Amino acid sequence: MWDVEELSKRITLRQLKWWMGFWRVEPFGDEWARSGKLAAVTAAAQGAKVEPDFEERFLPSYRAPVQTEEELKAQLRRIPFFARQMEEKGI
After folding, report:
1. Per-position b or e across 12-39, b if 16+ CB within 10 A of its CB
2. Domain layout of the chain by residue ranges
3. How far apart are CA 79 and CA 85, in angstroms?
4. Are 36 and 26 in contact (CB under 8 A)?
């Protein structure tokens, strides 16, 4: 964690302004979000349907929604091979 008090003793106002200007030109410190944005732009450029939470999926804090057993079965029924097997087994 950054110690703002200690940093204010070590950096001059001129240096702070320089770093603020640099950040405007070349933002730093949010690599995960930028990677997500790049992935979304690349996917969209290739014709993929980009969901609203696409960028968030690249963040370490992202937790995918939990799929219920019924939702999983419904998705599997959409695939002919699995649909036949499920029908045969009465699932």
Report:
1. eeeeeeeeeeeeeeeeeeeeeeeebeee
2. 4-60, 67-91
3. 10
4. no
Residue with the two structure tokens 């790049």: 38
> How many C-beta atoms lie closer than 10 Å to residue 81's C-beta?
8
CA 64 to CA 58: how far, in whole Å?
11
Assessment of whether the complete model's pTM goes beyond 0.90: no
Give the burial class of 55: count Cβ atoms within 10 A of its Cβ; 0-12 exposed, 13-18 middle, 19 or more buried: buried
State whether the Cα torsion 40-56-2-16 is positive or negative: positive
pLDDT digits (tens, 9 = 90+) for 22-56: 988 887 777 888 888 889 899 999 999 888 888 88
